[in-house]
Amino acid sequence: MRRRRGSTVIEFALTLPVIVVILAGILEYGWYLFQLSNVVHAVRDGTRIGVSVPLDDGPEIRAAVHARDVLNGLGVPCASGGCVVEATLQPATDVTVLKLNIEVEYVPIIGLLPHPSQLRGNFTMMMQDGSG
Predict the structure, then answer these.
(1) CA distance 82 to 35
(2) What is the pLDDT of residues 72-108, one digit of tens each?
(3) Which of 42, 52, 71, 102 could form a Cys-Cys staple with 78, CB 3.0–4.6 A?
(4) Domain residue ranges of the chain, discontinuous segments joined by +
């Protein structure tokens, strides 16, 4: 019986690092996907707000400000300068489109596994009829 107890401890010691790495990977990539979905939500919501503003009222500024507000509300560090939000109006064939780009510095939870340095999102939408 004593030999069996010793072999159980050795098996546990050999499998524990593997289990810890798997759990760290689940946490890290789960956090990454959560933060990426927050960036996608902010870029989509900012663009949606921007296209509803008349061209004379500065839709680019409204879109960028709203996207920053959404990021800050979701807990993505944008107020401290950890992100770049750029909104531009671009003429298309017979319409004007608003393009919003966001780049956020990614801060990992654990940092043991490979991870990207930035999260990026971009969205393009046609300005509404009353705006363009």
Answers:
(1) 13
(2) 898 887 767 778 999 999 988 888 999 999 999 888 8
(3) 71
(4) 2-126
